[in-house]
Amino acid sequence: MLRTPLAEQISVVVYGRRNAGKSSLVNRMLGMEASIVSPRPGTTTDPVVRSVEMGALGPVAVTDTAGYDDDEDELGTLRTERSRKRLETADIVLFVTPGDEEPTSDEIALTEELHRRDKPVLVVLTRSDREIAEAKRRFAPGFRKIAVDNLTGRGIEDLNAALRQFSDQVEREITPLEGLVQAGDLVLLITPIDSSAPKARMILPQVEVIRDILDQDCFMAIAKEHQLGACYASLGVRPALAVTDSQAFSEVREILPPDQLLTSFSILFARKKGDLAFFVEGIQRLEELPESPRVLVLESCKHHRMDDDIGTVKIPNLFRRLVRAGAAFELRQDVPSPEELRNYHYVINCAGCMTTRNDMLRRIALLREADVPGTNYGLFLAWAKGLLPRALEPFPVEHALYHSFRRSHEPVSA
């Protein structure tokens, strides 16, 4: 569990008004002082995330959030906005409310909204050492309620047991190679080591693919792009699949035979984290852009940027050369609102390895709502390097979708 990336853990978000007992509840659930507890309202500011193993549910990321009513000043409003974003991407919600008090109109409205979202929700009634208000017993019909005493810990085991019962209701991400290989297959990985690569480590998508190869009882060959020719010639069997870093597409295409199945780490993660078909459709809509489009590059993490950074240098340069010379680019890590998104003509997402599938699907839903087309790094680079539709051959549905497009031009090299 300690080595499971946060983006791969089930997200349990603890939500409620100020001083409802959220932080005390989190501390009891984790068996540690993870969150600061104080009778002063608004003690929790930024969301606090801690991991715990929960039996059948697996590794879980528990997020303690600021109270949704912490909006008395500008800073408090920012806190509530962050809490709200965590709620939207949660796999499971623990709605915390004092059991001895009547439900507020906000609490009633929020639980009704959660019911419409069809998320797994548990209503946690804190202060169970006191008499539970009759209105709270009738509160939030349709949701299971668990009474908890944060002071003694009574009810915590019932809460954890109820959480584990959600195991079959939580949509789990597919693995990177799920459905693409079989036990005994050979998988070839091409992993350039450039200036942006972390020192003495591999990037997360590469690590996850390697682990998936082992989990699926496959074999693996791995090489840097300048070693690929010698590596491929030495193989006794043809790889069932070759996976490359998107930035090495041009070099890899020249070395591997044209009938070798080939895709990229980023395209694998477009399928794993989001909606590959949506990103493929976004390639088609490049032709619709105006002469001077506003393009948003949307990343999921912050990192030190090098001179050849993919999001701020490589992709903008290729875009201006192959799509629209007058394109203006903006880079963000936060997801804009639908109103803000309408200020852009196109969005290019990163691979999403540091975010959850729920978060990526939320981004795609916002793009659909705003009618803004988009794709991801891997699909755009494959198109720009002339590797589409080849890089989609491992995915029959999306490959057929791409073939159905009538394109006015197709770049052949970059």
Automatic annotation (TrEMBL):
Transmembrane segments: none
Residues covered by the G domain: 12-126
CDD domains xref list: Era_like
GO molecular function: GTP binding
GO cellular component: cytoplasm
Domain named Hydrogen maturase F tetramerization: residues: 278-394
Single biological process term from Gene Ontology: tRNA methylation
Chain ranges of the Hydrogen maturase F dimerization domain: 177-274
NCBIfam families cross-referenced by the UniProt entry: GTP_HydF, small_GTP
PANTHER family: TRANSLATION INITIATION FACTOR IF-2, TRNA MODIFICATION GTPASE GTPBP3
Protein name (record): Small GTP-binding protein
Organism, scientific name: Aminomonas paucivorans DSM 12260
